[in-house]
Structures are given as structure tokens and as C-alpha cells.
Amino acid sequence: MKTYTPRNTEIFHLSASDFLSAGEGDWRAERLAEGMSSEPPEDAADSAEYEEERQREAEDLAGFYWWTCCPGCLPDSEASGPFETEMEANEDAGGGEYEDYIIALAEEIDAEPAEIEEERHDCYGLTVLSYGRQEYAVGTEEEADEAWEQSLDFYIEDCITPEIEKIQIGSLSSYITFDEETWKRDARMDGRGHALASYDGNEMDLADGYVAFRIN
After folding, report:
1. Cβ distance 127 to 136 under 8 Å?
2. Could you give the percent of the chain with pLDDT greater than 90?
3. Are residues 130 and 137 in contact, defined by beta-carbon separation less than 8 angstroms?
4. Of the candidates 192, 216, 190, 186, which has an alpha carbon nearest to the alpha carbon of residue 204?
5. DSSP letter, residue 187
6. Integer Cα distance of 156 and 162 in angstroms
7. Which of 59, 123, 140, 174 is deepest in the core (most CB within 10 A)?
8. Which tens digits make up the pLDDT trace of 87-133?
9. For residues 127 and 114, is the Cβ–Cβ distance under 8 A?
10. In sequence order, what are the beta bridge partners of 116?
11. Which pLDDT band holds residue 164 (cuts at 50, 70, 90)?
């Protein structure tokens, strides 16, 4: 499992002092003022009570926040929070924990992991993930090799009778034999994508050692 943070999202922590020291016009100062039940005192005698309330409010505001922010740019959304943990802030932003292969496929096809679903059926033992109407068979290199071997066996069983067949040619009889291993050897020359990626015949190299094949 990996923790995924949505693209162009910044998660950060603010302490009580960050709110107390914020200057006029700063969103942190405005957020602190919104939570106060009293106005700044005119009488110095009331200032201690006001500062105590201000301190309590700042402590309540301390925590993790998130906002959308493109690299090198100013934030383009308000800060959401506070959250007690970074994980809670990340989940509220649309992130969370996902299987490694889901994140790897999402990065390859420019999607968010939350948009990808794991199907109940498989493809020769490979995990099938769907993104809208698109389906992808995903696995490790070893799993892909095993699926490839299964696909070749299935093709032989489904399409070719692996026994001596009699062919009538006029009044002559000719006998042929089918060599499974030779056929598999020749089929392997076309690559795994040719057998597993029924949509386009292409194999996709993903992050973390995974590969994928689009199957529809």
C-alpha cells in the first residue's frame, strides 16, 4: 500500500503560534478573528481575558491543512482544516492509501487512483483494473510471464487440436503433427503484449516494476 496525495495539492501543518503571529490581511489572522467571541478590548484591564481567549482559539486552529497549489504558484483555493493528522487532511483532499499497482497505472494513464476500480475477474491471473470503460490487466514481470504462458496454452486448447489430424487431399491422405513447444517459441517472438493486450497489442511499463496490458 502507498499513500497518494492528489496532484497540485499541498498539505501542511500550522501551530498555534502561526495564527497568533499572523499579520493583518493574512488568512490565518482572519481565521483566528472569525473564531473570537469578543472584539479587541479598549480597556487594558480586559486585555488579559481577551488574550486567553485568543490563545485558546489559536490552539483549536492548530493542525494539518491542505489547499490546491500548482508548483511555483500561489494557492488557488482556501485552506481546508484543521485536521488532527496528515492522513486525515490527505483523505479530505481526495487522497488516501492505495495498492502500489493502482497508483502505478493511474500515473501512466493520467488518472486519479480514486477513479480506478479493481474488478472481480482476472486475466490469466493478472489483476484487472478499470478506468471508465477501459480495462487493464496489471501485474509484476513474473506474473506477466505466467499469464503469457497461460494465454498460449489456452489458445492452443481453444483453437488447435494437439493430435495427429488426417487431411484428405483428393485420393491421398496426408498426416501432420502439431508441435506445441515450437509454436509457443514462435509466438513468444511477438512479445507478451501480442498475446495479453487484446485491445492494441501493446505492453505498458509502469512504476515499481509493474506492467499493464489494455484488454478492451
Report:
1. no
2. 69
3. no
4. 192
5. H
6. 7
7. 123
8. 999 999 999 999 999 999 999 999 999 999 999 999 999 999 999 99
9. no
10. 131
11. very low
Greatest alpha-carbon pair distance for the chain in Å reads: 121
Q: Tell me how far apart the alpha carbons of residues 98 and 129 are, in angstroms, rounded to a whole number.
A: 13
State the Cα–Cα distance between residues 30 and 194, nearest whole angstrom.
60
Report yes or no: 169 and 161 within 8 Å, Cβ to Cβ.
Answer: no
- Average per-residue pLDDT for the chain: 87
**Model confidence pLDDT, tens digit, residues 1-13:** 899 999 899 999 9
Instruction: Count CB neighbours of 182 within 10 A.
Output: 9
Q: Are 86 and 64 in contact (CB under 8 A)?
A: yes
For residue 166 the three cell numbers come to 488426417
Residue type (1 letter), 56: R
Q: How many angstroms separate the CA atoms of 114 and 5, rounded?
A: 11
Q: Quick check: pTM over 0.90?
A: no
Identify which of 99, 124, 116, 104 has the alpha carbon closest to the alpha carbon of residue 212.
104
Distance of alpha carbon 42 from alpha carbon 103, whole angstroms:
56
